[in-house]
TrEMBL record:
<dbReference type="GO" id="GO:0005524">
    <property type="term" value="F:ATP binding"/>
</dbReference>
<dbReference type="InterPro" id="IPR014729">
    <property type="entry name" value="Rossmann-like_a/b/a_fold"/>
</dbReference>
<feature type="binding site">
    <location>
        <begin position="62"/>
        <end position="64"/>
    </location>
    <ligand>
        <name>ATP</name>
    </ligand>
</feature>
<feature type="binding site">
    <location>
        <position position="12"/>
    </location>
    <ligand>
        <name>Zn(2+) 1</name>
    </ligand>
</feature>
<feature type="binding site">
    <location>
        <position position="283"/>
    </location>
    <ligand>
        <name>Zn(2+) 2</name>
    </ligand>
</feature>
<feature type="binding site">
    <location>
        <position position="9"/>
    </location>
    <ligand>
        <name>Zn(2+) 1</name>
    </ligand>
</feature>
<dbReference type="GO" id="GO:0000049">
    <property type="term" value="F:tRNA binding"/>
</dbReference>
<dbReference type="InterPro" id="IPR035107">
    <property type="entry name" value="tRNA_thiolation_TtcA_Ctu1"/>
</dbReference>
<dbReference type="GO" id="GO:0002143">
    <property type="term" value="P:tRNA wobble position uridine thiolation"/>
</dbReference>
<feature type="binding site">
    <location>
        <position position="30"/>
    </location>
    <ligand>
        <name>Zn(2+) 1</name>
    </ligand>
</feature>
<protein>
    <submittedName>
        <fullName>PP-loop domain-containing protein</fullName>
    </submittedName>
</protein>
<dbReference type="InterPro" id="IPR011063">
    <property type="entry name" value="TilS/TtcA_N"/>
</dbReference>
<feature type="binding site">
    <location>
        <position position="296"/>
    </location>
    <ligand>
        <name>Zn(2+) 2</name>
    </ligand>
</feature>
<keyword id="KW-0067">ATP-binding</keyword>
<keyword id="KW-0547">Nucleotide-binding</keyword>
<feature type="binding site">
    <location>
        <position position="280"/>
    </location>
    <ligand>
        <name>Zn(2+) 2</name>
    </ligand>
</feature>
<feature type="binding site">
    <location>
        <position position="162"/>
    </location>
    <ligand>
        <name>ATP</name>
    </ligand>
</feature>
């Protein structure tokens, strides 16, 4: 701080700090440099034991239209990586229409390739017609299955998602509070392929908080969908996020210490067991089940009646 009360960027010490977050105080150009450097460190695999991808990798970028995945797609593009976007249109009324439009506009404005999988067009059912009670778990299953299937069938070497430090902290807290050892062994920013038809998955934003992606998206004037999915209750993850944010307020950098400390001490939880995967009788993709995979089972279930749909609020981006 100088005599006029103006706070300077902690990096260049010349310009006014206009990005003031719980962990950093930068001017905009220094913030963008810092942000890109954090993502590059993640991609290069610093302290991870392997790089996420290289300049020649064929990268499939899963984009929902939300702040985090739009941010990651933009950073990867600015860092010079060649990416193709993948958007899964779940046909959740206006929410999906708006999300798809955001992703398509971005791809067109940057001349980037984009694959859109329209659930109803490809499989005859929207998410609400597929899901029985728990729309969120059906949604997770459908997205995981389709992301991997497209990445495998189109020959991509890696699938990138926009999971942030906050997402990883919420998952970690959930896994720890329930002492879910199997999930703790598996949780990592790089998920190696354990089957020829399972594509490697990476989370290049694992060092970046939600607060930081919000600042990045604002500075870069990125268009993204602000509303949360109208079907998501997300009660548990929201309460975990709230607690973590309260702790971060009192103890800056706690989220980073929590998650990066976990990565450092991960061996304490033991090694993941490699169990043999079977092949789905219908689609030929790998599955832990005998017979049909979870996705094909979901497709086989009788269609949900349209009038059982929950009301979806209209929204804008
Ligand atoms: P979520 O599970 O909604 O928190 O999303 C986590 C990540 O999954 C996002 O950052 C995206 O990379 C990806 N993702 C989520 N929804 C979609 C979608 N509809 N289409 C493509 N990718 C998605
Ligand atoms: Zn199947």
């Amino acid at each position: 701080m100088n005599i006029t009360g103006m706070k300077f960027c902690e990096r260049c010490r010349k310009k006014e700090a206009d990005v003031v977050l719980s962990t950093v105080r930068f001017c905009e150009p220094c913030f963008i440099e810092y942000f890109e450097r954090q993502v590059q460190r993640a991609i290069d695999g610093e302290k991870l034991g392997a790089e996420m991808f290289s300049r020649d990798s064929r990268i499939l970028m899963a984009v929902s239209g939300g702040k985090d995945s739009m941010t990651l797609w933009n950073v990867l593009n600015d860092l010079g990586y060649e990416t193709c976007g993948l958007h899964i249109d779940l046909n959740i009324d206006e929410y999906s229409e708006v999300s798809r439009r955001v992703v398509e506009n971005f791809a067109a404005s940057k001349s980037l390739d984009l694959i859109v999988v329209d659930l109803r067009k490809e499989y005859g059912k929207s998410l609400m017609e597929l899901a029985m009670r728990d729309a969120c778990s059906a949604c997770g299953l459908v997205k995981r299955y389709l992301m991997n299937k497209v990445a495998y069938e189109k020959g991509f070497s890696v699938l990138a998602t926009g999971h942030t430090l906050d997402d990883e902290c919420v998952t970690l807290l959930g896994n720890l509070t329930r002492w879910n050892l199997e999930f703790l062994q598996r949780q990592y920013p790089i998920l190696e392929s354990t089957h020829p038809k399972l594509v490697r998955k990476v989370k290049p934003l694992f060092r970046i908080s939600d607060e930081e992606t919000a600042a990045y998206a604002r500075i870069k004037r990125l268009e993204f969908v602000r509303e949360k999915c109208p079907l998501a209750s997300g009660a548990t993850s929201l309460s975990y996020k709230k607690v973590l944010n309260e702790l971060e307020q009192r103890h800056p950098s706690l989220k980073k210490a929590f998650y990066l400390g976990f990565l450092k001490n991960k061996s304490l939880f033991g090694k993941e067991e490699n169990f043999e995967l079977k092949t789905c009788e219908s689609c030929g993709m790998p599955t832990a089940n005998v017979g049909l995979c979870a996705f094909c089972k979901l497709l086989e279930r009788p269609k949900r009646r349209h009038d059982e749909k929950s009301k979806v609020k209209p929204l804008s981006i």
